[in-house]
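From the thread on structure requests for the teaching lab: each student submitted one protein with a one-line request. Submission from student K.M.:

"Model Carbohydrate ABC transporter permease from Streptosporangium vulgare, tokens only."
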Amino acid sequence: MPIQDSSPLARPAGSGRARGEETRRRPRPDDTGTVSRRTSRGLRSERLAPYVLVAPALLIIVALRLWPLLLGVNFSFTGDGERNGMMVGLDNYLEMFQDATFQSALRNVGLLVLLLPVAVAIPGLLATFIYLRVPGHRFFRSVYFFPAVLSPVIVGAIFNLMLAFDGSLNTVLAVFGAGPVDWLGDPDVAMFAVVGVQIWATFGMALVVFLAGFATLDPALLDAARMDGASLPQTIWHVIIPGLTRTIQFVFVTTMIGMLTSMFGLLYVMTSGGPEGSTYLPEYYIWIQQGQMNRPALASAASTVLFLIMLVVGLLQISVLRRAGRED
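Reply posted by the TA:
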């Protein structure tokens, strides 16, 4: 019979090493606590990292944007002149809304809202033609963006010459037998003329945004539309517009903000708010009250109203465009 070796030296090969490794791998109670603390610190650091990175930008926004905005709102409830520094409640707002000039400025804001789709559709269509590589698209891309680099003062001076009663535009109309139009002197026409110049001068930036949006559009969708025999209007309505919903939202909001806050140069050079106050906008009214009438509190009230208008119009535009996107 084979003799079984029961001595402790008779063990399977490698068993001692395996047990030793298992012993070394098994963490001691102190090691387990240290590892868990290190893990929790790492997770906490990962959670705090985004807030640490965003904090400087937030501090800048609060210090340079929100805090001055709150100070301006508070200042709008104080008086001017003899009542300087005194709290007057809503007197500035009541006086402002009773001012015929400010009422004209609010009506012009409504006109800008109505003309906003045109201001967005023009660069959108031009970007579509460039994306579809119409003949000469590289040349047109440069030409369309050129007005965006011009100063509003230069643009206003150029169009003052073109839109004058004896200017080049009326000369061209006379060739076709049309009577001269007082583009900048007729209260019913002047605002449309200034808005048209504003659209021409600024649509280059919207064009660039649309071209960036086209870079995210799936070319396979356009190829499928062509294979299905879709016309250009059908392709734009059913393929391009749904694919650029977020881009269109961005252009709508930024274009509206630009029209409300960056037309001062054109208004000052082309019409100076006239004729008969027909081309006033809130920003021009603010400058008149602050710079010429020396009424900073009333100007602060107008600034607060302008901020609320931009906020409400922007939120309404986003909600309407989102709803349209869901329906499509």
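TA comment: Residues 29-75 form the longest helix (47 residues). The two ends are 90 Å apart (CA to CA).
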